[in-house]
Design goal:
Layout lengths: L19 E5 L3 H12 L3 E5 L11 E3 L9 E3 L5 E2 L3 H9 L6 E3 L10 E4 L2 E4 L4 H10 L8 H17 L2 H10 L2 H7 L8 E2 L5 E2 L1 H7 L1 H5 L3 H13 L4 E4 L5 H9 L4 E2 L3 E7 L4 E7 L2 E7 L1 E4 L3 H4 L3 E3 L3 H9 L2 E2 L1 E8 L3 H4 L6 E5 L3 E4 L11 E9 L1 H8 L2 H12 L12 E8 L10 E2 L6 H12 L5 E3 L11 H17 L8 H4 L3 H5 L1
Parallel strand pairs: 1-2, 1-16, 2-12, 13-17, 16-25
Antiparallel strand pairs: 3-4, 5-11, 6-11, 7-8, 9-10, 13-14, 14-15, 18-24, 19-22, 19-23, 20-21, 21-22
Helix pairs in contact: 1-10, 1-17, 3-4, 4-5
The structure holds flavin-adenine dinucleotide.
Organism: Streptomyces spongiicola
Protein name: Amine oxidase
Keywords: Oxidoreductase
């Protein structure tokens, strides 16, 4: 498993002397790569196309509210506490005191989810969910607790999976799984204030064999369901952007913003980057390059000197879109409706609605993450003009929260459609439903260097779509460069020690 580099590895430990490394992209992968390489004694500079660091970690602060005002996480917003590498950097950067609980989907009994005739509160949804779920089964001879298990698993998947993907997963919660669960006493897993829900985390943690007997597609997706509905997820109190900002402040090398890489030519002894800055484009010859930009961006540029397998993975890696839209509200009106946090499953194009903590000065208002959608719903929202998109979200969401229609309630709107953004053209890679060996083969291919050109980013990791994955890949890339010998270009893979040998 990837481990942060040890103090004994640097700063004077650069094997074969300091190398000059250019990192493309100042997202979390680029920043961690640069930080670790500098610790090892190498010279690093970062080229970033946009005008900001952080990439897909993006905290939007509403104008007029200042640094102390409410903000919206338009990119990453939560960290599962088991993401060891991310938690390591949080501690290393002195952000430990900002770690707070992140309240997630269905964590508040007063939150909503759609029922057959309108929205239901989580606390009162069980009978409707069970009836609905049982009606879709070939026979309903199961115990009530088994049906409750199936109904909540189904509701969680429906709230998290893109609509089209859900249909297949829904069928996967079939009789084989329920037959197994029916033999288990579920009383210890009942949870919620009225004990009318099943704690899926505790259940699957105690019954790994049941988990591994799920159909492959469901088994793979369960990680995301459990991560996203876990009670042990955290956030950073003052905004997730503290992580990239603190890292950037620790990096000694130059971070050049507004420099877009538009072409990469890998040669035997160097890597040429074509870099656009304003109206001019220049070629920079680099000894070593770490490319952390998403493959969706890379495949739009001119690439030469890449082997065919590498080009194939660059072109074929699948990304999902995601769109987030946040409303800056005059007040946290949902609190008067009994909701103290967490999220509702809203359905429609809006999909999920989060209620971030309104723990700042009430005079500055509160933020509602009105809509977090992925897949085709995110694309549909991305295609609309800003005014039309905001109107659609307001229309859909005000069925659940009519307060949004009150004059002066919404003070401002901010959104980001990651699938339509030129610096990402997608939210993240997904390898849902893939068999483990294929996932790993794709990961290795994505991360495989091309002579002096190395790769990092969430798409090169075993935890795609998470900050954890981006960090894992960055540490791997720093290891690779540290051990790379120029004369071995082309036979690098055979010459270097394996990762486990290196960390032994
Ligand atoms: C909506 C959303 C929600 C998410 N939620 C979570 C979450 O809750 N928890 C979690 O852990 N993860 C979450 N993620 C995933 C997480 O944000 C990413 O896995 C991680 O931030 C990716 O980091 P990266 O460095 O690999 O890529 P990026 O952050 O995309 O960094 C790449 C950088 O390259 C730059 N770049 C692109 N093209 C060029 C170019 N041509 N020239 C120069 N620079 C260029 C970009 O501007 C960017 O700064 C979420 C992602 C999204 C989009």
């Amino acid at each position: 498993m990837t481990a942060p580099l040890q103090d004994s590895d640097g700063p004077d430990g650069a094997i074969g002397g300091p190398k000059k490394v250019t990192v493309i992209g100042a997202g979390i992968a680029g920043l961690v790569t640069a930080y670790e390489l500098e610790r090892l004694g190498h010279d690093v500079q970062i080229i970033e196309g946009s005008r900001e660091v952080g990439g897909r970690i993006h905290t939007h602060r509403f104008a007029g509210a200042g640094e102390a005002g409410p903000f919206a996480e338009l990119g990453a917003m939560r960290i599962p506490a088991g993401h060891r590498l991310t938690m390591h950097y949080i501690a290393e950067l002195g952000l430990q005191n900002q770690v707070r609980e992140f309240r997630t989907l269905f964590s508040d009994d007063a939150a909503y989810l759609p029922g057959p005739t309108g929205y239901l509160r989580v606390r009162e949804a069980h009978d409707t969910l069970v009836d609905d779920f049982a009606a879709g089964l070939p026979s309903a001879h199961y115990r009530q607790d088994t049906l409750l298990f199936g109904a909540w698993l189904d509701a969680s998947i429906r709230a998290i999976a893109p609509r089209q993907f859900y249909d297949g997963l829904h069928n996967d919660i079939g009789v084989e799984l329920l037959d197994l669960v029916d033999h288990i006493d579920l009383t210890p897993y009942r949870c919620g204030t009225a004990h009318n829900r099943i704690d899926l985390h505790a259940f699957f943690a105690d019954h790994p064999r049941i988990r591994s007997s799920c159909p492959l597609r469901l088994e793979r997706f369960l990680d995301d369901v459990l991560d996203e509905t876990s009670s042990s997820i955290v956030r950073l109190r003052d905004g997730m952007d503290a992580l990239p900002r603190r890292l950037a402040a620790r990096i000694r090398g130059r971070i050049s913003l507004g420099r877009e890489v538009v072409g990469i030519d890998v040669r035997d002894d160097a890597v040429d980057l074509r870099i656009r800055q304003g109206a001019t484009t220049v070629t920079r010859t680099c000894d070593y390059v770490v490319c952390t930009i998403p493959f969706t961006v890379l495949r739009r540029m001119r690439l030469t000197g890449f082997d065919q397998d590498k080009l194939d993975i660059v072109h074929q890696t699948k990304y999902w879109p995601a769109t987030k839209i946040a409303f800056h509200c005059r007040e946290a009106f949902w609190e008067k409706d009994g909701i103290s946090g967490g999220a509702s499953f809203t359905g429609g194009h809006v999909r999920q609605t989060y209620y971030p903590p309104a723990d700042g000065d009430p005079a500055l208002g509160a933020v509602l993450l009105a809509s977090y959608s992925i897949g085709p719903d995110a694309d549909a929202l991305a295609r609309l003009g800003e005014a039309e998109r905001n109107a659609l979200v307001t229309r859909e969401l005000s069925v659940m929260h009519p307060e949004l229609r009150r004059p002066g309630m919404v003070l401002g709107v901010a959104g980001r459609a990651w699938g339509a953004r030129r610096w990402s053209w997608g939210a993240a890679t997904v390898r849902w439903g893939q068999e483990a060996a294929l996932r790993e083969a794709e990961r290795r291919e994505a991360a495989r260097p091309q002579r002096g050109l190395f790769f990092a980013g969430e798409h090169c990791s075993s935890k795609p779509a998470w900050i954890e994955g981006a960090i894992e890949s960055a540490i791997d890339a720093a290891h690779e460069i540290e051990w790379y010998e120029p004369r071995a270009r082309g036979v690098f893979a055979a010459a270097r020690p394996s990762r486990s040998e290196r960390s032994a």
